[in-house]
Amino acid sequence: MADQISSITNHFLRAFLFTVIFWNNIQCSVEHGLTMDYSNRSLSTVPKNLPAQITELYLSHNNISEIQMSDFSSLSKLQVLIISHNLIGELDFSVFQYNEDLKHLDLSHNNLQTLSCYPTTSLRHLDLSYNNFIDMPICPEFGKMLKLEYLGLSLTRIHKSDFSVLAHLQLDTLFLDLEDLSEYIPGNLPVFNTKNLLIVFPPNGDYHVLADLEISVTESLELSNIQDKQVNDLKTFLLKLNKNVTLVNLTLNNMQCVWKDFIDILQTVWESTTEYLVIFNMTQVEAPSTVEFQHTKTALKALTIKQTTFTTFGSDPQNMYRLFSEMNIRALTISDAGLIHMLCPSEPSDFIYLCFSNNTLTDTVFKSCDNLTLLEKLILKSNHLKNLGGVSLMTSHMKSLKYLDMSLNLLQYEDYENKCNWGENLVTLNLSCNMLSESVFRCLPVNIQMLDLQNNQISSIPKEIIELNALEEINLASNKLADLPGCGQFRSLRLLNIEMNSVVSPSSEFYQTCQGIKELKAGHNPFACTCELRQFINLGKQGLMELVDWPDSYVCEYPDYVMGILLKDFYISEVVCNVSLLVTIVLISTVVLVAAVTFLCIYFDIPWYLKMLWHWSKVKHRTQKNKPEEMLSNIQFHAFISYSECDSDWVKNVLIPNLEKDGSIRICQH
Length: 670
Known about the structure:
The chain is an alpha/beta fold. The protein has 15 helices and 36 strands.
């Protein structure tokens, strides 16, 4: 329920919100086609020879002064055309007669003065606001646009008959820009028949348009640019809300008023049927010492006040804080308001959702407060909180608290501080953008499921911490971690974000304890592409774990010869990285070589040849050493004959007798 209330309160804070919603719906309905974006190109004309398959064409923020039929006649599939912020002065709707599927047309912020109409019946969204129309830019053909859901107009003169053409259309959203209104006769404003109505009033308070405003079926109303002179007209209009049971959401944007007017407006809405009130960008309001407000039973569910500074220079601020803390509503947002404190409700509160972001709250906020037992979501983003242990004690009294956002503060935690004591149901904790070190892991809720520690000063994850068995997601991006941590204390972890750290390679513990992780976001780290990284690269290549932003965000940083290479393109042999495999290969190769040499020696009688070579070398050595005359005196034979057995007869009977017949040569035979 708290999440729903939060979504709704934030939902109505954006100007022209309904336009955005409808635009998203249009985008979803567009079939897969071709999108072309020519925005911010300084174009003076619509580009020629555009592909016929275009379904979405963006031409905003250019210098186009004229559009012709030939510009879009070939784009039969065109569904979305954004041509805002140009210099177009005239428009003939017949230029779109060949664009039968055109649903979304934005011509806002041009110089349009005249229109020539043509029944463009397929349109659902038409924005003609912020142009130079003098009279209502409406013609009879608009009455045939039965599919039209959003219409944006700018007016300088209002005649009651101007809206008669639109009376039977079932508009979802009507936006009226009356900033340049120069002529208005009281009573000329019709009763608007639209679910969502957005009106920007003229700064000149002499035109009492707001006093004439009446709505019938409007569920969401946004009124902008309400000056001091128009506040009484606003009060008059708000008194009518007590009789109107359809208005659910009311947004007051850019309003000037004093404290008394603010309280009168708030009290009137409090007593109406309105469920969600948003006050955005109100002038600085000085709260008096005495604050009168009737906290009666109300239909209001959520109050949102943004970019409105409340001051108490000459008064007691406690009374102003009491005004807000005692509200019997489910959701309260006061952000960008200069709050330095907020009181604890004096009785058990109905608050389910509280947001005090972008203020100057300190550690004393809600200290020892035990009347927020129904609170499920608390946002204290961007304040002056410093002591994490003290903040944990604050939540210990909030028995229903599930979501806590304390990002963008000055939080620190030291090991010597007292033990932290968090609310037992807290499951989502945002501590990003603080000054926390690794000691924060000794001060975390035991039942936490989603933890955001992005952009702190964490350099490691200590071993001696409480096991966070329920933790499913942890964000450690933009810290000082040197390696991928293990998951020994996070047995249920499914998502780990560790991008933009100093990770060189994963730890061995990571592979052993993090098999349960489904998504890992580890890009933009200075990876050392060595053997240790091979297993991590295989995670991405084989899909064993989803590496978010793989492969573009994963780049080698070290050593220098692979710097800039994507991890997916890095390769190093298994043999180089596996010492055991390398030793095995060397041993096997040696054994094979020895066996081969042995076999060859035996087969080719190589030992005999080696022996002969040895003797020959000895003789050669002796020959070189001794003198020739000494050698001749020791000679017994002049020649040695080796022969095959089959030639033995010839050697013995023919060769030797002939060589030795004169006795001058003596033969040594084998």
